[in-house]
Every structure is written in structure tokens, then in C-alpha cells.
Amino acid sequence: MSNAAHDVTNSNRSQPKAAEETEVYAVHGADPEVLAYGMAKYSRSSLSLRQSLAELNQEKTEKFLNTFYFQYGHRSIADLAHLAFAIERLSILAATIVVDDPRWDGQERSTRYQDFQKSGYYLPDFGSDARARELYRETIDFLFAEYRRFSQEMFRYLRDRTPRPEEMKPESYDRTLKARAFDLSRYLLPLATNTSLGQIVSARTLENQVSRLLSDPYPEVRRIGELLKKAARQAAYNVNQAAAEPLVAEIQQRSTDLGERLQNLLLREVHAAPTLMKYAEPNAYAQESRGELGAAAAELLYSLPLDPAPLVDLLEDEPLEIELATTLLYQHTHHSYRQIRGVVEGMTGAQRAEIVDLGLRHRRRHDEVARPFYSGQNFRFDILMDIGGFRDMHRHRRCVQILQDYTTLHGFERPREIDDAQLGSGYDAAMRRARDTAAQLAARPAAAANEQSPYVVPLAYRKRALFKMDFAETVYISELRTGAAGHFSYRNVAYAMYEAVAKRYPGLARYFRVTDVREPVDLLKR
Predict the structure, then answer these.
(1) What does the alpha-carbon distance between residue 93 and residue 489 come to, in Å, rounded to a whole number?
(2) Residues whose CB is less than 8 angstroms from the CB of residue 320 and which lie 6 or more positions away in sequence, other chains included
(3) Within the chain, which residue ranges are assigned CATH 3.30.70.3180?
(4) pLDDT in tens, the chain (526 residues)
């Protein structure tokens, strides 16, 4: 071959292949695990997704996942499988724990737009203690009766003071005022109230969620973890089955072979994540850390009385080791962050290091670092608000939330409209009855007492939560949650967040597009 020919040949070989046009297409019908496997193959194969899915089956998928997911720890593969679940008839208490994940996506029944009169409630296992069971049921039934009464009374009160505009249809008028009435009466709903939620999460989030739920102190929550794991591995609900069955039957009458092929295609069982959920088990790291940190918090803070606290407390910066130790203790007590930090600051460096070590010493090879270690955010708000409003704030996932347990120690909120409607005395009596029942249930010698008493706590009682975030999320929450259409509870919290930032950083205040919560609100523009 001549040199010239040799040069031409090399030149041709070095030329890149002409690029084809970019192609974008949606995919439907593949099992979640199979689809995750097909996408994972992009890093190991030149096949298109269409080609990968055409050659895959569940057996190949399981073999691949067992190798690359469980043996090599490539957990990002599970991020590619997204799964939809319905979780129905669980308590509000359990629901707040189920959704407590920064990567969770879903929706729960709204206390504004749905009447919870007929939802029913969760009944814990009281064993042979019939008196405790009776006290529990009597209190919950009473709170539901008060919820029904207050819903009707507050609707009448709001209707009497809010004339219907001529251009507004009566049904729209009634629906709007009922929503506002539910905003007020929801404070009487106990945490035992049944709700429902739907979620769409990745298989990795689901695995972490199931492990977390299986490790929870509440039996109801552990049971939900078991049911989620089972639902991921067994046959899923097929929305096409009812429509496809008559068609398959008709075709089978004409051609058995063709009918069977169609049935295998349309009516086959789909299992959401049978392989990826195989090893979702209780998290020993979480369980062991919770026990030791709870004991440390009790020892350090037991004799410290609860100090009065503002609605929102914007905390100052401190050394990272102090923030870590304080945050680790925070969720195991009912004291404010500021009070706990005072105790931590008085410790020696070795004592603080011991607290931090309690949060890490039980971590195993595949355990993610516990949430309290997501530290270093500049905007940290210690918030003390009613449980009902907290459920709305809890939806903000782009921040770190450290939550304390439910309690009656911080008192309850009473909306101004309750007093205006001359219902304050009945409202207070209901709150006192729920508080007294919770105390009686918690004082029982049974080991499960503290797993039962929180269920009777109404949404009016206050709960403490630590929210850590960056500036962008502070702006987002303040702007969104101060909107006139929002619930007055979280509107006040969001505005207090804005005011706290504006006071500390006056130059940044002009970047917040908040709604002043002190301005009157038109109840019909919601």
C-alpha cells in the first residue's frame, strides 16, 4: 500500500460517524425493576433503551440487581425505578412518620377540603386492659362529636358574617366557607384520626422508608412498613384489568392461542420491586442510636424545666461540634434548641465528642449518616406550632427537619374565630379532656403506654420542630406560606420566619415577596 493510500485509509478511519438526530421518547408498560435495569445498561452497553427492554425479562433483571445492587452497592440503580403506592386508613400520627423523608413525593387527604367525620380512627392494642381501651375510645368518640359540632357551628358563624356576592354561585360560596370552617374545626381532630395518602417514590427511597418504618417505636408504623414491603413484592393493582378482561374473553372464544398471548400481555401480574425490596429490614443503626441518645438526653435534661419559647426562633451560628451534639439530643426531648445548646456549651470537648459518637458508632457499612448530621445550614429555625399547621410545613422537603415527639406539654392553639363565635369554653374543655386522657394512658405501667397515649392528642396542641435550610428555601417558604389563601397557622409561622431574617439581615429583607399576615383576608378569595 502506498503512503498516500495509507494516509487516506487512516484519515477515513479517524472520521467520526455522522451524528443521527436526537431522539426522545416516553416509555410505558415496563415493570419498574426492568425499566431501572434497562436504563442502568446505558453505562455498560451501546444498546438503545428500546433494544435493552426488548431483550430483558425478570430473571435477567434479578440476576443483574443481585450483582450490581446488592454486591457492589450501586444503589443509584434503585433511583431509576419509581413506584406508586396507596396507603389507606392509617392514623394521622402514622402518616406524619411515613412521609418524613426529604425525598418523599405524594399527597395526603386534606383537612380543609374533606370532612373527616366518617373517617374512623386507629385503635392500638391494649391487651387485657379493658379500662384503658374504654377510656381511649370514649375520648376519641367525644373529640369526633365535637369536631362535627364545631364544623357546623363555625360554618354558620362564617356564613352569618360573610355575605355572598351576587356573582358567586351558592355552591361555590358554601364550599369556600366549609373549607374555612374545616380549617378551624380540624384542631379538634385527634392524631388517631384515619387518613389516606398516595406516594410515588424511587425504589431507593422506598427501601430506606421501609427500613425506617420497621425500626419505629409505634406498632402501627412498623405494620405499615411490613405492608409496604409486601406490596412492593406481590402483584400490583392493574388499572387495565377490568377493561381488558371482556376483550380477552371474546378473543379466546375465537382463538385460544391468541387469547392466551393477549392475556399474558395485558393481564400478567406486575411486581413493583420484588428484588430491590428483598433486604429491606429494620435499621439497627437507627434503633441502637435512638436508645442511647434518648438515655443521654434524659440524663442531661431531665431536671431542666421548659422555658417559654417564641413561635419561631432564628438561631445564631455556633461551632459545628456544638450544633451536631445539640441536634442529636434535640429530637429526644421537648426542650428548645436554645436550652439544649446552653447545656452542650457547658460540656467539655470530650463530653460533646461522646454525644456525637453516640450518633455514629452503630453505623454499618450501607447505613446512610443519620439526619442530624445534615448540619451547617445558615438558617436554622426552632419552631413551636400547632400540629395541624406543622403537617403543612412538614411538606417542605428541601430542608432538614429534626422533629420532637408529640406531647401536651406546650399547650394548644385556640383560633380567634373560636372565641368570636362564643365557643371558647367548649373548645378548652375538649382540649383539657384529651390532655387528661393522654396523661392517664401514659401513666399506665404497661410497656406500650407511650405508644398509645399520643393518639388522643388533638391537632391543636403544639409540637416543636427544628428546620434547617439555605437562604433560597427561606425565601420560598416565606413567600408561599404567607399567601392569603393559606391557613392562618402556617401563615403566621412563615411571616415570623421572614421577620426574623429581616431583623438580622436588613439588607436581604427587600428580596422577600411576602404577604403581610396583618392585613384583612377576604374569606371568599381562597
Answers:
(1) 19
(2) 375, 376
(3) 284-412+460-511
(4) 455 545 544 545 555 556 678 887 777 677 777 777 777 777 677 778 888 777 765 556 666 655 655 454 456 777 777 888 899 999 999 999 999 999 999 999 999 888 898 889 999 999 999 999 999 999 999 999 999 999 999 999 999 999 999 999 999 999 999 999 999 999 999 999 999 999 988 888 998 999 999 999 999 999 999 999 999 888 878 766 666 667 666 666 666 666 566 555 554 566 666 666 667 788 899 999 999 999 999 999 999 999 999 999 999 999 999 999 999 999 999 999 999 999 999 999 999 999 999 999 998 877 888 999 999 899 999 999 999 999 999 999 999 999 999 999 999 999 999 999 999 999 999 999 999 999 999 998 876 767 899 999 999 999 999 999 999 999 999 999 999 989 999 999 999 999 999 999 999 999 999 999 999 888 877 6
Q: Which residues contact 499 (CB under 8 A, 6 or more apart)?
A: none
**Residue ranges matching CATH 3.30.1360 in the chain:** 84-235+277-281+413-456
Give every CB contact of residue 511 below 8 A, 6+ residues apart in sequence. 475
Does residue 49 contact residue 39 with C-beta atoms inside 8 Å? yes
DSSP state of 195: E
Sign of CA dihedral 499, 501, 506, 507: negative
Q: For residue 436, how many other CB atoms are within 10 A of its CB? A: 14
CA dist 116 to 265, 413, 506, Å? 41, 20, 44
Architecture of domain 84-235+277-281+413-456: 2-Layer Sandwich (3.30)
Three-class HEC string of 451-489? HHHHHHCECCEEEEEEEEECHHHHHHHHHHHCCCCCCHH
Query: Maximum Cα–Cα distance for the chain, whole Å?
Result: 105
d(CA 150, CA 152): 5
Report d(CA 417, CA 155) in Å as an integer. 11
| d(C-alpha 489, C-alpha 386), whole Å | 8
In CATH terms, 284-412+460-511 corresponds, of 3.90.980.10, 3.60.20.10, 3.50.30.10, 3.30.70.3180, to 3.30.70.3180
Reported pTM? 0.84
Q: What's the chain's length in residues?
A: 526
Q: Given CA atoms 371, 390, 123, 119 in this order, what sign does their dihedral have?
A: negative
